[in-house]
Protein: Helix-turn-helix domain-containing protein
Organism: Salegentibacter salegens
Amino acid sequence: MEELDLKRQQIFGKHVKRLREEKGLSQDDIAARCRVTKGSLSVIENGNRNFSFTTLLALAKALEVEPKTLLDIDFELFSE
Amino acid sequence: MEELDLKRQQIFGKHVKRLREEKGLSQDDIAARCRVTKGSLSVIENGNRNFSFTTLLALAKALEVEPKTLLDIDFELFSE
């Protein structure tokens, strides 16, 4: 796992956590709404999983946001 | 693999192909720009792979678009 990939997973994880908390939802609430378990969500929010496309869609649905909103953050993709 | 997941992978794949072709890039060009092989890109564009988060970022970089642009399509997520 490249260091940059890990950093971007962490950027994404913090963003998902922030969105979830802004909506007043717990990890249990998300787990109840989709097939992402509480344990998996915790690992994702800590930036320690290279999750799949369908997991991203499941999270977007559970958070009631469009998928692109989950990527509406600066991953510093073009500043390497 | 749920039928809806497959459909959304196909929606994504067509979108990536459209973006690539709009930029006049071949699958070989994309493969040369990032670690996604030509074979993998072809499978993704045909909607037959549940690819990872870091692959999505690699594709965005190779296509010179922000990651959220790759998800700026209607996945009919909330119309089930």
Q: What stands out?
A: Chain B has five helices and no strands. Chain B touches chain A through 25 residues (CB under 8 Å).
